[in-house]
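Moderator note: this is an archived Q&A kept for reference. The question asked for a predicted structure of one protein chain; the sequence and the answer are reproduced below.
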Amino acid sequence: MDSPISIVMLGTGDFALPSFEGLADAGFRMLTLVTQPDRPQGRRQELIPSLVKQAAERRGVPVFQPERVNDAEAVEHLRELAPDFLITAAYGQILSAELLGVPSQGALNLHGSILPAYRGAAPVARAIQNGDLESGVTIIQMTPRVDAGGMIAVARTPIEPDETAGELEDRLAKLGVPLLIDAVRAVASGRAEILPQDPALVTKAPKLRKDDGLIDWTRSARQIHDLVRAMQPWPIASTTWTALPWTPKGPVRLIVHKVIPVEGNGEPGTVLAASKDGLVVAAGEGAVQLLVVQAPGKRALSAAEFLRGHHVQVNDKMGE
């Protein structure tokens, strides 16, 4: 009997977890999980292993955590394992041409967009931020150019109207598992159809930064709604609240977890309503009702709860 197809999996983010477990459950031989070193997290700055690392340890799959996977020592270690495939999903480092040459059957990547749209580190968040109605996953044959390889399989799914980036990413991670399993088998058997990406359709999805979450109230209500959804789970949308008349206390930063577009007109960033019936702020087009907000160091509250402890008034200002 032929030995099972052998795989080195590279993944760090939660997006990688369903793929790792799906490949293992499908009977492939998981030689090792390559994941980034544990990083300090939370207020206590504790070293917390990723979920995919925890899954590998439960299954008895060796874990390899080089600081730089393209270093000669790391590449040599993986070469010694002689894998049939490298599989990547949300790993967090770009692989060198030398490393991509290690597996006998090639390297495959599960990417969270319908390529060639949204090449880059944040495809799910950027799709929601741009108001897209559809997303998906693509299995590509990896090349040294990021997310530019030939496409082996694509699956599509609608983006729900109030879906956050975290929620969509969870769905996409699961959507990609059967595609990835089939792609490995198809490439190994020589029956995979690999299609080139159309360069004219390429768009980019740059890595999220902290200030990407700042709300620009001159945007339309729909765009602000999409931004708030896109920035979850990180960096989370935020704004500042300035009580008028201005007080020495100055602006208060507000984390904004959930909003809906509503009707309304006014100078962008102006509070139009602040009562038990809602906290409404004017946008560049229409208005936004804040549903869940959070003051620094406090827990997230419904707008009604927040207003009971904070004297927000009509004509107060949101934003810089």
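Archived answer notes: The first strand starts at residue 6 and ends at 11.
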